């Protein structure tokens, strides 16, 4: 296993250990959270964990949860989410995030924001001094509104680009059937304001800025050849 995957595995496992029996658990999307889902399944199987239900944030999370034997529920059927575990593409010192590398940020924001405790699992490469430093900001948009939304984003100083599929002709399609526009901003000085401004553009469903949502960040790092987990 590569060093990066070892970090993801250990931090995913550490987050899974924080889930208690009887919990409603928000199941995030991405490579690190996939390990969390795997270890939750293993804890259920060996009897260390009982009576949990998962709320997936994507088709990917739903498929993995079923594969590892985690019962699923929906927001229509529960009145709480005890804990949500999810990855991030960037984390700043205030625990604000950019998410959406997997085009699942709309469902992720709904589930993560509802959770009593939201834990972010990342490797150290995702830590930045300022959001937008290394990762473009994803914006989910209704297909019919793509052109006017891109024009509005340009007026805000952003450089928008429609995300294209890999091994698929044409654009990426989200689980909601929409497009994703990836935006480069020279500087995101006020993430909270930008989050609101983007979401007020007609045709925008949601963007990848998660401001004031995160409770705990678990970071996987390699120190002296060993993987260690530290908490922000």
Strand residue percentage: 25-35%
CA distance, first residue to last residue: 26 Å
Tell me about the largest β-sheet.
6 strands, mixed
pLDDT average, as an integer? 96
H/I helix tally: 6
Number of DSSP-assigned strands: 13
Rg, rounded, reads: 18 Å
Helix coverage percent: 25-40%
Structural class based on helices, strands and sheet pairing: alpha/beta
Sheet with most strands: strand arrangement = 2-1-3-6-12-13
Organism: Phormidium pseudopriestleyi FRX01
Keywords: Isomerase
Pathway: Carbohydrate degradation; pentose phosphate pathway; D-ribose 5-phosphate from D-ribulose 5-phosphate (non-oxidative stage): step 1/1
Family: Belongs to the ribose 5-phosphate isomerase family.
How is this structure best described in words?
Helices cover 29% and strands 27% of the residues. α1 packs across α2 (31-45). The protein is built from 6 helices and 13 strands. The two termini are 26 Å apart. The longest helix has 15 residues, at 31-45. It has helices at residues 3-16, 31-45, 59-67, 105-114, 146-155, 191-199, and strands at 24-27, 53-56, 81-86, 90-91, 97-98, 115-123, 137-141, 159-162, 179-184, 204-207, 209-210, 216-223, 226-231. A 6-stranded mixed beta sheet has the order 2-1-3-6-12-13. A 4-stranded antiparallel beta sheet has the order 8-9-7-10, covered by helices on one side. It has a 3-stranded antiparallel beta sheet with strand order 4-5-11, covered by helices on one side. The protein has 232 residues and is of the alpha/beta class. The active site is at 108 (proton acceptor). GO terms for molecular function: ribose-5-phosphate isomerase activity. Keywords: Isomerase. Homodimer. InterPro entries: NagB/RpiA_transferase-like, Ribose5P_isomerase_typA_subgr, Ribose5P_isomerase_type_A.
